[in-house]
Design a protein that fits this description.
By secondary structure, the chain is α+β, with helices and mostly antiparallel strands. About 30% of the residues lie in helices and about 30% in strands. The strands form two sheets. Strands 1, 2, 3, 4, 5, 6, 8, 12 and 13 form a nine-stranded mixed sheet that branches. It has a four-stranded antiparallel sheet with strand order 9-10-7-11, with helices on both faces. It binds 4-diphosphocytidyl-2-C-methyl-D-erythritol 2-phosphate and adenosine-5'-diphosphate. 4-diphosphocytidyl-2-C-methyl-D-erythritol 2-phosphate binds next to strand 1, strand 2 and helix 5. Belongs to the GHMP kinase family. IspE subfamily.
């Protein structure tokens, strides 16, 4: 509590991502695959608000709220606790209430859970005035939460190596236009898609895999931000596995290409499909065509790259939660 009795709250906005390239290398001993990926943050955002509270809790609103766990499995809650463990005793160890306005599709290959975790780290660092926690330290905490979390702290377009957690920004000017197709009630589990990729590779006898590298073609295309060059260089080694588990995605990809998309790609482990188009006008045409002719799904127009998790409000008196059904509730005390 501040001297005036009002409670401070911090709101952070965080984007989802797609992968412009996902080269999957050998399975490591720790159960992860060696990766080279090119992350690209796009303009669909969750908003995460944290404020001091008497108990740890997480509350979710928005179209995908009913698919988000509100118990200890919630990645945002795990992020807050992970950062709380780094606070000095003097600063106190009071819990927080976390409110998530969820607009990023859940289990869609857009790293929504990772985005919420990144947003929570940024929000809690601000709320707890942890000025000594620099970006590198925050990225270290982020990597412990999931392979995609460090990228969502930065956003933009960046290469992810290792298991995806080592992030290096890519020089990219300008903007790309995308149309996203998200199947209602679909959702693919990331470990299952990686396992299906291994299975398909073993079946095809392709087991002797080199250490993955980013492609020169994609880097050059991004430097020029030339839509057709980027279109030609998109690659996702998990796509065949995602289509094998969810064959409808093949139909979606074919429909988008027939309707004039420059390229179509499954985002990460799927099942979101991202279509690259040349302009906002092309994006509108494609979304109308997909809505009329494609398999049932939500269609969203986005642009990328956009920045990662950013504080958008730092308020003494928190605004009331947005209208609509709220899921979640208090959790028991947590000793971090
Ligand atoms: C596929 C990608 C592409 O960006 O994202 P999504 O499409 O799920 O968002 C990522 O590699 C997902 O990253 P993230 O969702 O953070 O995964 P993690 O929590 O670290 O790992 C979940 C599980 O995915 C598998 N996994 C993940 C990363 C990796 N390099 N190799 C793996 O094999 C492992 O089975 C692991 O137990
Ligand atoms: N804050 C959160 N938002 C979304 N999903 C979460 C969150 N915390 C945990 N999860 C879990 O993570 C799983 C993966 O969700 P998500 O990160 O949206 O997808 P993906 O890994 O495909 O990018 C979900 O099925 C959900 O159970």
């Amino acid at each position: 509590m501040s001297p005036g009795g009002s409670t401070e709250a911090v709101t952070v906005r965080v984007p989802g991502k797609i992968n412009l390239e996902l080269v999957v290398g050998p399975l490591r001993e720790d159960g992860y695959h060696e990766l080279s990926t090119v992350f690209h943050a796009v303009s669909v955002y969750d908003r995460v608000t944290v404020q001091p509270a008497s108990r740890w809790s997480v509350h979710v609103t928005g179209p995908f709220a009913d698919r988000v766990p509100t118990g200890p499995d919630n990645l945002a809650l795990q992020a807050a606790r992970a950062l709380a463990r780094r606070r000095s005793r003097r600063a106190g160890s009071g819990p927080v209430r976390i409110d998530i306005d969820k607009q990023i599709p859940v289990a869609g290959g857009m790293a929504g859970g990772s985005a919420d975790a990144a947003a929570t780290l940024v929000a809690c660092r601000e709320l707890w005035a942890m000025d000594h926690v620099d970006q590198d330290t925050l990225e270290g905490v982020a990597a412990g939460l999931g392979s995609d979390v460090p990228f969502l702290l930065r956003g933009g377009t960046a290469i992810g190596s290792g298991r995806g957690e080592q992030v290096t920004p890519v020089l990219a000017r300008g903007e790309l236009h995308w149309v996203l197709w998200v199947g209602e009630g679909l959702g693919l589990s990331t470990p299952e898609v990686y396992a299906e990729c291994d299975r398909l590779r073993a079946e095809a006898g392709s087991t002797d895999l080199p250490v993955p590298q980013p492609s020169g073609e994609l880097m050059a295309a991004l430097r020029r931000m030339e839509t057709d060059e980027v279109a030609a260089a998109l690659r996702n080694d998990l796509q065949a596995a995602a289509v094998s588990l969810q064959p409808l995605l093949g139909e979606v990809l074919d429909t988008g290409l027939e309707l004039g998309a420059r390229a179509g790609i499954v985002s990460g482990s799927g099942p979101t499909v991202a279509f690259l188009v040349g302009s906002q006008a092309e994006a509108i045409d494609l979304s109308v065509g997909l809505a009329a002719n494609g398999p049932t799904g939500d269609i969203t127009r986005v642009v990328g790259p956009v920045p990662g998790a950013q504080v958008v409000q730092h308020h003494r008196t928190p605004s009331p939660p947005p209208p609509g059904p709220v899921r979640g509730g208090p959790l028991g005390p947590v000793h971090g």
